[in-house]
Structure prediction request, 454 residues.
Amino acid sequence: MSVTVRFAPSPTGHIHIGNVRPALFNYLFARKQGGTFVLRYDDTDIQRSKDEYAQGIAEDLKWLGINPDRVEKQSARFASYDDAAAKLKEAGLLYPCYETPEELERRRNRARAMGRPPVYDRAGLKLTDEQVAEYEAEGRKPHWRFKLPNHTANDPFSCVRTDVHWDDVIRGRQTVDLASLSDPVLVRADGTYLYTLPSIVDDAEMGITHVIRGEDHIANTGVQIAIFEALGAKVPEFGHHNLLTTSSGEGLSKRSGALSIRSLREAGYEPMAVCSLAVLTGTSHAVEPAKTMEGLADMLDFTGISKSAAKFDPDDVGHLTAKLVHGMSFAEVAERLKSDGVAGDEKFWNVVKENCSTVNDAKKWWELVVGSVTPEIADEDKEFVSQAKALLPQEPWDETTWGEWTKAVKGETGRKGKGLFMPLRKAITGLAHGPDLKNMLPFIGREKTLDRLS
Prediction:
């Protein structure tokens, strides 16, 4: 069987790390199986969906290394949804309801107060022609609910336990009792569609074989299987992974701006660090940075995904990024360094990369070489620095210059260890840390070193 999966974001904001988790699970699964990955924009909410967000999602996915085989927009497929709704209405499975949101909430509250589950009572099926006419005269428009197959053959008001089973590719055997659920609203009063019906129609018509998504959709899956069957469509396989939360246990949302893919990209993090953390957090595999999507696909094992929520720590993106950066060759970063105005060669990159948390950090070390520095010289070190300046070797300089110079300074001043090296480092770089000066000094050169020792 050829695998076809989809990622269906709503273009109503920027995607965040929580969105990327299902996108990556689907993408890596498709690549591992030699299948097809469909990017399908859930843009049926015309008021909130924006082209700029759709473009932003495409850019973020491309940066991550997710390259769709197909791109679809639900806003171009309303005719298919209309046909499906008509089919369900003709079968008596999609029925009109006229309650307002306030009326529905009062009913739910009464049910809770009486110790009953707040399940919709199918009052819409009891409406007479006269009652419908009254509602219409008031200007009310109906919303439309799908009648779940959870009742006896001839009485929709006699609900009976109706189990829907499926073998979840992540969580194993799953069961949902349709009698515990309300008939879902598929069409709003203004005629627009909620997510459910367009998603099912698209999955059927696009040949989606596997729907891999968050565990918050498990109850929905029972409902959706019933609608697939009512439409005479083939039911795909389902997989439900655990959700990412913040380190404090809160759910992620589009309001989590610090965790948006755009913000992580702008912070200079490596895409494979983001992908590795999004995929491996909450699994039995050690969280380590994969260098390629192929490598990450090899690490992904659905059977190793925990059933508990996975806590995401943004600091870990930085740790994984640093690991990747430290292992990068000059060829891998040359163009990025050039675009940042870093003219250093392979030798320079090899000297500074261990002190770079991101590739962008190389810029500050290059500016330390070619730019101006504010020397940090304590009052008690001024005489010592002046003595060291007088002993500075002539050029040419290489990796042995620092050792020769400090040896001479030690002999002249008697200083050693940190008391010898730290004042010189602070004077030359303005910093108490950084790449080894034996390697940096030849890049800085004698003239600039003399200026900074003044």
Q: What stands out?
A: The longest helix spans residues 17-33. The mean pLDDT is 95.
